[in-house]
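[Discussion] Sanity-checking designs against the backbone

I'm trying to build intuition for which residues belong where. Below is a structure token string of 287 positions. I'd appreciate it if someone posts a full sequence so I can compare it with mine line by line.
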């Protein structure tokens, strides 16, 4: 029974990891840039949802849509102003830019909001479902469902819409995409906005069971990169598989090891996958 419970817990948290990682993978898949500032947008999403809850009374799960819209728009502006100029620059310039952006966003939040931890109070915060002795936490379940819905929405957008197909074409060959009338710069801008917006959305939906702080994104960024690399850097489907895998491995290993060492098994598997399949489980730049 405890293994099944751990599996359920792992899938619930893994679903959130997946939507956080999808944004990172989308940005790399379309633009070819590794965004080390990605975790900071999770933090921004949490603060947006927190202030919408505090001043407008919006539940964080509803505020998540506001966080997505705000960060999507901000991400497009950032891409045009900061990311675009370094897209063809050496990789080291891209790394320093995104790390600098991470530090700026974290310290900006520290300056504006202080170092205090901020949490919300909701009616379902301590609720749970009892299914034959298996306990399913309501805030975890709601966060999982919204994360899965947003990931499916992204998949449908990329597969079924003209704009999504144009973005995939840009990822395959920007020059050929330009010849057939697609504006690669515009596609890059939208991809970056979508990527960071989805991460902000993921940050908002976990606010009912986690606290917002300026450095909360740092706690997740290693797990995001682990999920993305496990699934295959640049693969949206791979990020989903990687995120779910990270959650399940963490949860199952928690049964065998102290909580402080639950990531030990995760990174052993991570190293093993890299050694045997360096391109990840589902490597595909346009998947």
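Best answer:
Here's mine. Compare freely.
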């Amino acid at each position: 029974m405890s293994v099944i419970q751990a599996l359920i817990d792992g899938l619930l948290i893994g679903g959130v990891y997946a939507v956080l990682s999808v944004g990172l993978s989308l940005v790399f898949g379309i633009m070819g840039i590794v965004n080390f500032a990605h975790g900071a947008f999770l933090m921004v999403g949490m603060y947006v949802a927190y202030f919408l809850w505090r001043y407008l009374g919006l539940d964080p799960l509803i505020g998540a849509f506001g966080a997505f819209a705000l960060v999507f728009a901000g991400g497009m502006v950032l891409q045009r102003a900061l990311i675009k100029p370094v897209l063809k620059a050496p990789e080291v310039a891209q790394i320093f830019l995104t790390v600098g952006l991470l530090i700026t966003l974290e310290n900006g939040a520290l300056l504006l909001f202080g170092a205090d931890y901020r949490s919300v109070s909701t009616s379902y915060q301590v609720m749970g479902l009892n299914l034959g002795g298996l306990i399913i936490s309501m805030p975890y379940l709601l966060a999982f469902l919204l994360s899965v819905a947003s990931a499916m929405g992204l998949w449908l957008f990329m597969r079924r819409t003209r704009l999504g197909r144009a973005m995939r074409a840009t990822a395959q060959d920007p020059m050929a995409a330009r010849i057939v009338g697609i504006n690669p710069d515009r596609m890059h801008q939208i991809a970056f906005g979508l990527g960071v917006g989805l991460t902000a959305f993921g940050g908002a939906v976990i606010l009912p069971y986690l606290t917002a702080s300026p450095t909360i994104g740092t706690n997740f960024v290693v797990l995001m990169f682990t999920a993305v690399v496990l699934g295959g850097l640049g693969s949206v489907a791979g990020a989903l598989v990687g995120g779910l895998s990270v959650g399940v491995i963490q949860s199952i290993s928690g049964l065998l090891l102290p909580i402080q060492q639950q990531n030990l098994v995760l990174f052993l598997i991570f190293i093993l996958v890299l050694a045997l399949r360096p391109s990840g489980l589902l490597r595909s730049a346009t998947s």
